[in-house]
Write a structure and sequence with these properties.
Exo70, 24 helices, Exo70_C, 4 domains, mainly alpha, two-stranded antiparallel ribbon, transport, phosphatidylinositol-4,5-bisphosphate binding, Exocyst subunit Exo70 family protein, about 0% strand, 4 strands
Length: about 675
């Protein structure tokens, strides 16, 4: 039977509420949302109808006819009464007036009430009959709802049988209160759920968590176990059908929505996510907020990948057939309520002060929101054709629009945070050089930051396509942004190298920092792919030039002391005073180099080894040759010891002790 043709006659003592019939049209319902007042008074209605019905069942009066008869005081014959009631309802629907007696109405109401009383606590009260017919209880409740609707439009309901009509309406309210109790208990809202004939586990109504709640994309691509077993869903569907057919759609849908919203929230709390207001988020210290973002990201991904599909399936199964539109509306409202509240968290995060360390958590949020769009689009596409104006489509469209808006805000925030890295590099104009020409803290910070950023390379490419400076063409805008940062860092380091008074140390500084940058790039496939091999070759070329500059500044003068440039020998004769001066200058130069450059730092072992080997390969053979040619011109003993203080092996040892950060003099070393 169509629910619109069976809208019950409801007592005017209940305030009006608005609900929606199966066609989506609004209509008024003459009762409060909650049936609590009915529950409180129902056992007093008509002198304690429930107790009276049971008493009559147990103690039939004598002389009132045979038990089960139509006019006796025993159990009312529900089957026989139903025939008359069906005839009255059918006659009303067919515009062929069929009358019904006041006694029949009273007895039918009592029979239905007795059946409800007997059904409390029964496990199989909602079980369908053989052949798929609805259970007797469900059939009786549906029939009394149809009767109340028919009475509201017939002479019998307009004053002819006023007392009996009120009796029917009261039993209908009693039936609806009973259904609400059962529905509420099965949904998990009633801790005493055992009275519904189902033993519930404490978390039966909560969305299941995925096997690992620690993974950022927990639950993605995994089917979740349904929150209710099939037999429970069948009972929920039967109750929903009965309540909606009786005109209690608002109570049914609101209770379902609230119960599932609570279950959804409980599941999200399992990921450590709890609702926070925007003011609290904005004021939160970054360490605390970072933990909140991690929990939010896990919970949001679970909601999108597991929670919504679970709830969609449940709504589809409970509200099926002619009530499918109701299920779509409930799901859409649930999805909108849960997701909009979660999305408000991102707005609060975007309002916090921008800082470079926030980039990666903002990108995590961006990715989660981005991945939500096709999920919501799929639910929208699943709506039946021609339902674009339905409230479900409207709610999901609103959610889709909000997701797009949040994605844009997060994209803008991420792009701005990354671009502020350039501002940080420009602002780092310290006037104190790093001791020993070591890797500058700015270099370490920027390169490590870029390494992590490039792990989000595809996401940052999307971000900069949406909100970056580099636009148009097929080029990757993030790659261009990365190049800008690298060039800016290179220029900053060139400026810092000029803070060193010693040109050799300036070259060591540039070598250290350039080598660190190159190693970071080659050690990260992502950043290496973004910058390209051409950039790496250019950086290698720069390093070779810094190396040449260092050797020229430091060792060219030393090597010049070891050359016979026409001053040491004149016409085949060694000029001894000049030779003595040459040895004295060489010894002083080596002592100075050892003392100063021993304190310089080359932390990269390979670079340190390359420098030492390249220096030794030039200096040691030159010194050995110089010794072999000129040392014999000194008298053995004190004169030799005074001028020839270093052997070729000593020079090699000095070179091997360079760049280890330990300042010592050659004299102290030899002592």
């Amino acid at each position: 039977m169509d629910s619109r043709s069976q809208a019950p006659y409801k007592s005017s003592s209940f305030s009006q509420a608005t609900t929606r019939d199966d066609g989506g049209r609004s209509r008024e319902v003459d009762r409060n949302f909650s049936l609590g007042a009915v529950r409180d008074k129902r056992d007093l209605h008509h002198g304690g109808a429930r107790e009276q019905a049971i008493k009559e069942e147990e103690e039939p009066e004598e002389g009132d006819g045979a038990p089960g008869g139509h006019g006796g005081g025993g159990d009312p014959d529900l089957a026989a009464l139903s025939v008359e009631i069906d005839a009255f309802i059918a006659g009303h629907d067919a515009d062929a007036p069929v009358t019904v007696t006041e006694a029949t109405l009273e007895k039918f109401a009592s029979a239905v009430e007795l059946l409800i009383a007997r059904s409390e606590g029964a496990d199989d009260k909602w079980a369908a009959e053989a052949g798929g017919e609805p259970s007797p209880l469900l059939a009786a409740i549906t029939r009394i709802a149809a009767l109340a609707s028919a009475l509201g439009k017939s002479p019998e309901g307009g004053g002819k049988h006023t007392a009996a009509v009120h009796r029917v309406t009261g039993v209908l309210h009693r039936a609806m209160a009973f259904l609400e109790d059962e529905f509420h208990a099965l949904l998990g809202g009633d801790p005493c759920a055992a009275k519904a004939g189902i033993e519930h586990e404490s978390d039966r109504c909560v969305l299941p968590l995925p096997p690992s709640a620690d993974h950022g994309s927990a639950g993605a691509g995994k089917e979740a176990a349904p929150p209710y077993p099939p037999e429970t869903v069948d009972r929920l569907r039967a109750m929903a059908d009965a309540m909606i057919a009786a005109g209690y759609s608002t109570e049914c849908t609101q209770m379902f929505l609230v119960a599932r919203r609570n279950a959804f929230d409980a599941a999200l709390q399992g990921f450590g996510y709890d609702k926070s207001n925007m003011d609290d988020v904005v004021k939160m210290a970054w360490e605390a907020l970072e933990a909140e973002i991690v929990a939010w990201t896990k919970a949001f991904r679970h909601a999108i990948n597991v929670g919504l599909s679970t709830e969609h399936e449940l709504c589809t199964r409970v509200f099926s057939g002619r009530h499918a539109a109701v299920g779509r509306d409930i799901f859409a409202d649930l999805a909108r309520c849960v997701m909009l509240h979660m999305l408000s968290f991102t707005e609060a995060v975007a309002m916090t002060k921008r800082a470079a360390e926030k980039l990666f958590k903002v990108l995590d949020m961006y990715e989660a929101v981005r991945d939500a769009s096709p999920v919501i689009e799929a639910f929208l596409s699943a709506d039946e054709p021609g339902t674009a104006d339905r409230s479900s489509s409207s709610a999901l469209a609103e959610l889709k629009a909000e997701i797009a808006s949040v994605r844009a805000r997060l994209s803008e925030s991420a792009a701005a945070i990354f671009q502020e890295l350039e501002g940080s590099i420009r602002a780092d104009a310290g006037k104190q050089p790093v001791p020993g020409g070591a890797v500058h803290p700015l270099t370490r910070y920027v390169m490590n930051y870029l390494k992590y950023a490039c792990e989000y390379n595809s996401t940052l490419e999307q971000v900069f396509r949406e909100h970056g400076r580099h636009g148009g063409g097929d080029d990757n805008p993030f790659s261009a942004q990365l190049m800008d940062v690298m060039e800016l860092l290179h220029g900053n380091l060139e400026a810092k190298s000029r803070l060193y008074k010693d040109p050799s140390l300036s070259s060591i500084f540039l070598m250290n920092n350039g080598r660190y940058m190159l190693q970071k790039i080659r050690g990260s496939p992502e950043i290496n792919a973004m910058l390209g091999e051409a950039w790496a070759r250019k950086q290698s070329t720069n390093l070779r030039q810094y190396h040449k500059n260092y050797q020229r500044e430091t060792w060219s003068r030393v090597l010049g002391l070891l050359r016979d440039d026409g001053v040491l020998t004149v016409k085949g004769h060694v000029q001894k005073p000049v030779l003595k001066e040459r040895f004295k200058q060489f010894n002083a130069a080596m002592d100075e180099i050892h003392r100063t450059q021993g304190a310089w730092v080359v932390s990269d072992e390979q670079l340190q080894s390359e420098l030492r080997v390249s220096i030794a390969a030039v200096v040691v053979p030159a010194y050995r040759s110089f010794l072999g040619r000129f040392s014999q011109h000194f008298s053995a003993g004190r004169q030799t010891e005074k001028y020839v203080k270093l052997s070729a092996e000593d020079v090699e040892t000095i070179i091997d002790e360079l760049f280890d950060g330990n300042a010592t003099s050659m004299v102290r070393r030899r002592a």
